[in-house]
Amino acid sequence: MNALHLVYEEYDQALLLQIASTISGQQTQHREASLELKDDAFFEWLSPSVWEVEAQLLANRSQRAEGTLGWVLELEEFRKWRVGNLENSKSTPAQTLWLNGLPGTGKSTISAYLYDLLLHQYPDATILHFFCKSGTPGLTTAHNIVRTLCYQLTQKDPFYHRYLQKKQDLPSPGRLETLILLFNTLIKDPISKGPQESDIFILLDGLDELEDTSSQAGQPSYASRTEIEALLEELVQIPRAKILITSRSSPELKKIL
Q: What phi and psi values does residue 127 have, to the nearest 5 degrees?
């Protein structure tokens, strides 16, 4: 069994390197490149940050020089994160990879590069992504993340589209009582009830740039936790999910990740 696993990993790594060479030096074209807004009423109710996230993705792609970042694919941590849990069990806990470093070290460029690689190698997977950006409306709160990931879910599989359409009888996501309720209703519950055979990847870039709105008057308390700490503690409990997070080094995030 170990020998078979090793052969698979070697083949998988070779395939990934081949994919990396095909997207090097060109603007990646993928199914999210020309987004079509479906169900305007649902989109208005959910209010996701679709265009803002895609703008950041394009900007981060443009920062990568041709032929660079191949070293990321050789990282043992990345390989284990990407190909681990081959049994794809419904009870398998989430796997988390945290890339942290100083500001300006290219973390967001790496995130965009890995997102494109995953899209090419796992065309049938559910791949969700969010790029945080301090000072940019729509990219600064944990609520923005949940709403946007929820909308991306509806675009990945008809089941999620049907399931989440039924949630429009709830109050607007901006007025749901707590972040955790929002997350469980729009992300965790549909994933737990949705197709179990596909891989789930969640890429969250720049979490250190999020604002913590829970400290504002009238906002719910999360038992001395920030909103992002509360969100991450829920996120890492999603079965089968593979979560990639980039941020500056943070003692608070280190405790969770």
A: -120, 110
